[in-house]
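Entry type: protein chain
Record version: 2
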Amino acid sequence: MLFHLLFPLRDSVSAFNVFRYITFRTAGAVLTALLLSLLLGPWFIRTLRRLSIGQNIRDVGPERHQVKAGTPTMGGVLIVTAIVVPTLLWARWSNPYVWIALGVTVCFGAIGFADDYLKVRRRHNQGLSARGKMLLLVGVAALAATIILRLPVRHEFTSTLFLPFFKDILVDLGLLYVPFVVVVLTGASNAVNLTDGLDGLAIGATLVAAATYTFFTYIAGNSVLAGYLQVAYIPGVGEVAVFCGALVGASLGFLWFNAHPAEVFMGDVGSLALGGAIGTVAVLAKQEILLVVVGGLFVLEALSVILQVGSFKLRGKRILRMAPLHHHFELVGWAEPKIIVRFWILAILFALLGLSTLKLR
């Protein structure tokens, strides 16, 4: 909005010329999202407490988590608000990629909101059925993929898949592109959801991934940088860096309240929205495969659940004391803050490995 309001006045006030730069507006989105989170956070948490919207803790979880029962949840509403408002404020409304990223984030968040609402209403840790929730996520992801492929030709977005570490190997998925995007978006959202089990763990890892993809989207939208680093050039996708900036600021702001001991939990409304946002950005920047590296921590958490369930069904034995992975280390004896910080370190290392692919081509 600010771009459309103030940039046309650049001839009268030369200072408004800065709004042409994506870097300036991305920084503005980061700061706006952070301030919005910090300002609304206390009021929002008080409101959740007044409405008795508290977290239900599963009996099968670690016993130490029972003390967290009743902590306000559905804090993801604050996260989504702190993403949407700054993006609308600083991004160019004429850019379709921004609307796609916002649309997936809001829709995935709405699905998570419905799930959280049912849990709170029933006073039980069961919301939407697993099948129903997955069908809704798949539907939104398929719609987003279809819209991306039907964008006007000038955006030069194709169904081609670019592989990290290789500059000459391109794979045209053709009709398989939509199912592929569905897997990326639903996989990312569920992986973040599984990681959201300790105070600040998921939002900290999301912050790292969002900051990393801020660089990837900016580079992909810059013909000079994309050519130099030999990555896919997608005209217009650089504007998504503003959305990523809002995601970074919202994550920082929410972490202020979600850090151990947490004053509020994000709930499914937050974890599904964040996973959808990261997955969508990866698709738009043509760095879908690299999401496995940049979001390596999320992948480890999801794999731990898959392997645990698979091992128990096939062999009748568990390979971990408890899944997801962070619960295993809790039962091993690691203190919660130590697990969180060490997993954040892993998230940073995975992000740096992802960034290194820009020069290893």
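Comment: The two ends are 38 Å apart (CA to CA).
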